[in-house]
């Protein structure tokens, strides 16, 4: 599998941070976390595992959850080179779904083990898990092979920002310059982005959060969480169709279709 482009780096960093816009959706109870993970395993949901600060990823599934071992087991990836690199990663971010609601959790490293006679990954159970409680909050991590960009007509000069995730409620913008002119609480009318296969969206964005993300070279970029202001129902439907199509494509890819 090809590596994501440089512009996709850091797309997932700090999504589970206590100070993030998603903090209220974090599960901390071991019982609740186990319930969600078991549901993911039972539903055979696709799990996208990101590492190296989002520079690389592979597709997997959750094989089992073993609280007595403080462990979960993930299916071995299809690319041996990515598997080798993943084993050397100290932090990995898993994105999946439970009952059609987005789920995300972080793993502190992987070990290679045998599972029913075949290779698999083993990791310690996460202590935090993000589960968005309402379906309308479901956020799709945008495909790296076909990135989305949002045009924001700022007064100083137009800004082209990569969309790292999208829902019917808003977008996450990544890889922004440290001195980005975007301000929390400000609304920016006339923003536009094009969804492949659906068409163009024209909307007002309100910036809800700004986060500093550290690059491996020591540099900094920002990530902005934005909501759509009064997005028409027809455009919400466009986003829903886009999310469903991309999810289906990822499932087909994981099955080798």
Automatic annotation (TrEMBL):
It holds the Pfam family PilZ. The keyword Nucleotide-binding applies. Residues 133-244 form the PilZ domain. It is found in: Bacterial flagellum basal body. Keywords: Bacterial flagellum, c-di-GMP, Cell projection, Cilium, Flagellum, Nucleotide-binding. It comes from the Bacteria. Residues 25-130 form the Type III secretion system flagellar brake protein YcgR PilZN domain. InterPro entries: PilZ_domain, Split_barrel_FMN-bd, T3SS_YcgR, T3SS_YcgR_PilZN. Gene3D superfamilies: Electron Transport, Fmn-binding Protein, Chain A, predicted glycosyltransferase like domains. Belongs to the YcgR family. HAMAP family: YcgR. Acts as a flagellar brake, regulating swimming and swarming in a bis-(3'-5') cyclic diguanylic acid (c-di-GMP)-dependent manner. Binds 1 c-di-GMP dimer per subunit. Increasing levels of c-di-GMP lead to decreased motility. This is Flagellar brake protein YcgR. It comes from Thiobacter aerophilum. The lineage of its organism: Bacteria, Pseudomonadati, Pseudomonadota, Betaproteobacteria, Burkholderiales.
